[in-house]
Amino acid sequence: MQGIGINELNQRLTEPRSKDELHQLTQSFNRLIQRLQGGVDQLKQFVSDASHELRTPVATIEGHANLIKRWGKDSKEVLNESIDYITSEAQRMTHLTNQLLQLAYLEQNQPLHSFEPSEVISVIHDIQHQLSPLHDRIELTSDTYSHAILAGIPADILQQILLNVVGNAIKYSPSGECIHIAVDQTSQDVYIHVTDAGIGIPAEELPYIFDRFYRVDKSRSREYGGTGLGLAITKRLAESYSGEITVQSIIDKGSTFTIRLPLETEHELISA
Ligand code: ADP
């Protein structure tokens, strides 16, 4: 009776053919209710987490607006500092709201539109280029890829995934250590490994870091401009294209995030 819809269940529950069928129908009904309850609970948690996250920047903005009201006329220093805070918190709220909207969209499992596969190495070069003002040591471990590697994911989505993972690698490598990106492939999949020698993640926290709003160290992450949503979005994006993201990490030694994506095989390989 798995996969039976609510309307059919209702209909059959009114006229069960046997005691056995009534029992099975009741069990299906209970399972359905449990699933719905799970969905409602998740939604409640999402709304409560989101409001909690938005409350902090709102409180900061309110506090600085009050400072301006009281001291702004007398002190240029207070005025400028508070305006800076208000601007950066407003930007943070915009970023957070955009991330929340994207996550809500991804969690509805929207059907995917048709798309062009992406060429992995050129997307990595784009990322290196985009991030180079922030960090000049993002190295593609081997630059001798002699052919195009096509992944079954649109280039802009792969870019978003990599920007987030490489961005985190930079953020959580405070001494400016080098970030390595390596690519390998099997007959079916392409693997992109992003390795940093940064602060690492404690083993007991690893199972949770792809959960939304999860941050290993809330105050530290906030200091770096983190929201705790980036990896949750990244995971759902990879999964939307039949991929996945995994992590290995050792505290104080660094982390490797591996993104697996389906290899696009119909296209001919380009020789170097
Ligand atoms: P944030 O916006 O806080 O960076 P993410 O969802 O991207 O949120 O990451 C969740 C948490 O995982 C981060 O707050 C951080 O504690 C941890 N994390 C992610 N990437 C790394 C990394 N490369 N090194 C160490 N910790 C990391």
UniProtKB/TrEMBL annotation:
It catalyses: ATP + protein L-histidine = ADP + protein N-phospho-L-histidine. Residues 49-265 form the Histidine kinase domain. It is found in: Cell membrane. The keyword Kinase applies. It comes from the Bacteria. Its EC number is 2.7.13.3. Keywords: ATP-binding, Cell membrane, Kinase, Membrane, Nucleotide-binding, Phosphoprotein, Transferase, Transmembrane, Transmembrane helix, Two-component regulatory system. Residues 1-41 form the HAMP domain. It is an enzyme of class 2 (transferase). One of its GO terms (molecular function) is transferase activity. The keyword Cell membrane applies. Coiled coil: none annotated. It is a multi-pass membrane protein. This is histidine kinase. It comes from Paenibacillus plantiphilus. The lineage of its organism: Bacteria, Bacillati, Bacillota, Bacilli, Bacillales.
